Sequence to fold (842 residues):
Amino acid sequence: MSKENALVQMSHISKRFPAVIALNDVQFELKRGEIHALLGENGAGKSTLIKVLTGVEIRDEGTVLMEGKEIFPHSPLEAQEVGISTVYQEVNLCPNLSVAENIYIGREPRKAGHIDWKTINKNAAELLARFDMNIDVTKTLDSYSVAVQQMVAIARAVDISAKVLILDEPTSSLTAIEVQKLFDIMRRLRGEGMGIIFVTHFLDQVYEVSDTITVLRNGEYVGTYAAADLPRVELVGKMIGKDYAELDKSAKENRASKEAGELWMSVRGASTTGIADVDLDIHKGEVLGFSGLLGSGRSETARLLFGIDHMEKGDVTIAGKKVELKGTLTAIRSGIAFCPENRKTEGIIGDLSIRENIMLALQTKRGLFRKLSRSEAEKLADEYIKKLEIKTPSQDQLIKNLSGGNQQKVILARWLATNPDLLMLDEPTRGIDIGTKAEIQKIVVQLADEGMAVVFISSEIDEMLRCCGRMVVLRDKKRAAELTGNEISEATIMQYIAGGVENAKQAEEVN
Amino acid sequence: MSTLSVEKKNNKKLSITNISLLITIALLVLTFVVGSLRYDKFGSLSTIFNVFNDNAYLMVVAVGVNFVLLTGGIDISVASTVAFTSVLTAFLLRAGWNPVLAIALVLIISMAVGAGMGVLIQCFKVQPFIATLAGQFLLRGMCTVITIDSIPITDDFFMFMALKKLTIGKAKLYYYVLVALAIIAIAYYVLKFTKFGRNVYAIGGNEQSALLMGLPVARTKILVYVISSFCASLGGLLFSFYTLAGYPLQNMGMEMDAISSCVIGGTLLTGGVGNVIGSAFGVLIQGLIQTIVTYENLNTWWTKVTIAALLCIFIVIQRLLAIRAEKMKAK
Fold:
């Protein structure tokens, strides 16, 4: 397509934060009348790129051209002024104000110096009618469903500037019908010549509505493709950093597939807000992997097993007994341990020492009134520091002073101290150095060999292959497949992540 | 917030503010009727005017606090501001200052303190409770630095404001009440018909959203504390007209009267919902209950007991309505 058609051109964009390089020499181009999906796994840099474009973050390097003219927005307001509006995942409107006011606040029409409510209500009703919404605009926003609120947000964004619309995961809280309605509107806006950037985790939706796809990975630009020419499997490969063709050629790694131990936990038809109808069997002495893209339900399944998310329906049996997973304490007492994904906010307590951090879960399991004695605590802490090779001058060191890898080991120790039957690790190796990564993987396999059941979640397929003896693949909040032994290969996993057998066939044809 | 909206098309479902305000007004009328039936001379214009006369200053203070509450903040410095204003004014007048200059000075000082608290809250992310607690201690402390005694006011202008009144039959309404009514009207207009006023509501509804919608959040948040302090200081001047003295220990705990008036009038402490008409009614109902308590010859603390009960009822009603609204939305 010609350059004249370009609406936004971002080139050589770099953004550094104190600890990480969020964007490194990234480019992005949006044309008029185009729905452009921006994809990537967690930490790929897509939100940072959006933030740079909308002025929430200031770019360190690179140029952003809007219709050929350089822009440098320093705030969302400045971005709005040049024609870039954003609708975020969470509806960013005010629930206490009327629908009409939410559309016009900040730019209220005025008459004789005061706000002209009549015009606001009239214009808002007209604007929403264009989106096939006939609702009472004088009612407060919170009297409507999230889907309506989202439409109102889009109406506001479109009304402010009809050039670029950024939709940041707009569908995550919508039902299927509402999603269709949103897509209709996106197509209509595209027809009106608007450029739409669409950020989502759902690949089905990407293919349904997008013209173009740009993939980022680890803060780097991977490529821009026409959606019609990019098979799903290749797309997934680009997102997680493995080329499908290359993979298929590589010899399938052979894992010693062990005899599965006795059945310890089984889940039937479990549904929460994050997953639907999941069946699972977990055996002693195995490492079970949950694979899938972010938002596929892999973490949500673990959260369900640990009793964090409320199970709407389904049955859970632990060691032959039916259990109701109500709250984390039940889970801990049933012998389940869980290292959550977000170590900093959900794992460590920075201002406590290593010893205290290790003791937390065990103390909880024992109950508040049976305090662990100091000497017991010291003994346990020393034991795990030695066993897991935690690098620290002493067990009194504050955990926040440790490196990421060592923090992760402390959390691992915290749960191992409770002597669990099932250990669940969600992204245990993210953001830690290669050496420690390997150590943690080794520990995981060792624990399973000793008879513990381990659930392992990671977005790095390499790591999953090395650790897991059995793997459940999740896609779009549902269980897509279960692989064991030799069936587990990067190629198969990717096929299932990308969308089942039909796509797998499609991929084979391509190759 | 749509209580008195210009257009009322099909408000079948009453909003939280509506109901709280309606209950307040209904209670006000009921209290008045019951009082009139029970006591001679209660059911007269005099009683109503006296409630206004006695509580004009509190109305002004409550209006100011309401701005802060609407953003989701809180201001517990206002009672000290009232005391500080009347003590400093009394002190300056005794020292022979021109009353206009004295009034201007105390208003400016109070607004500066309000701005200071606003900056602490906005720029240094200090909890509003802590920042205004500091303001409270500072101003109460300053009172006792100026004097520890009661200073009488004998200035002509103050005497004029204290004594001049409208008379309708036997009922008397002091001029300073008109100041309070004017403030309520202005505040109502500002909140309903100016961008600043709507920004206040937006911030109370969702501050993050307000920021992303490009509203001037920082400026607005600082300004509400300036307004609150200004109203408190003006309330302090009205209080000086009312008592014709300045005493450092006066109005201890009155900030809670102002806040509870707002809540009774339908303001949510979480911000975003409420209006100044409600706050004014909240003050009036407290005043009327006080009158009844006086008629009954009870200890004045019974006013507090009644208000406490009332507050509980209102908060529960608000919660129930909010829960019902959630359920309706879920359907």
Observations:
- Chain B is about 75% helix and 5% strand.
